[in-house]
Amino acid sequence: MGLPELTPLQALAISILFDGEKSAREVRDELAFHGVEMPMCQVYRLLGRAELAGHLLARHRQWQTADGRPVREKRYCPSRQGLDRWRATVAFYDALDRPPEGFQPASLEEYLADQ
Fold first, then answer.
1. H or E stretch including 14?
2. Fewest 10 Å CB contacts: which of 24, 25, 50, 97?
3. Strand partners, 76
4. Distance (Å, rounded) from C-alpha 52 to C-alpha 115?
5. How confident is the model at residue 104 (pLDDT cuts 50, 70, 90)?
6. Are 62 and 72 in contact (CB under 8 A)?
7. DSSP labels, 42-86
């Protein structure tokens, strides 16, 4: 198994979209909930690159404010390719979470004695 195509941050952004399409602002709020504080320009860049790579689909939604001003918002959801890449990324990091069979960690004293 090679390295995953998605970074952990990209995988988190895709997983945030599993419960429905969201705007960049909603993604930023969810990232912050998970401890990742980012300015909007970085969120737009993250989502834009994921869209260009085929990991996300996007569409524009338009409406008007109460005072009649038009608002246009881009909404994102995972693509099939994005879901496949997310699964591969999760499997990669899940496999790293377990030490190999029979692994015995060295104590600090043993490690330093080998130097």
1. helix 8-16
2. 97
3. 22, 58
4. 48
5. confident
6. yes
7. HHHHHHHHHHHTTSEEEEEEEEE-TTS-EEEEEEEEE-HHHHHHH
Q: State pLDDT tens for residues 2-59.
A: 889 999 999 999 999 999 999 999 999 999 999 999 999 999 999 999 999 999 999 9
Give me the domains of the chain, ranges plus CATH numbers. 8-97 (1.10.10.10)
CA dist 24 and 48 (Å) reads 10
Residue 1: predicted pLDDT: 65
SS3 assignment for 78-93: ECHHHHHHHHHHHHHH
As a whole number of angstroms, the distance between CA 31 and CA 12 comes to: 8
Looking at the predicted structure, is the pLDDT value of residue 115 above 70?
A: no
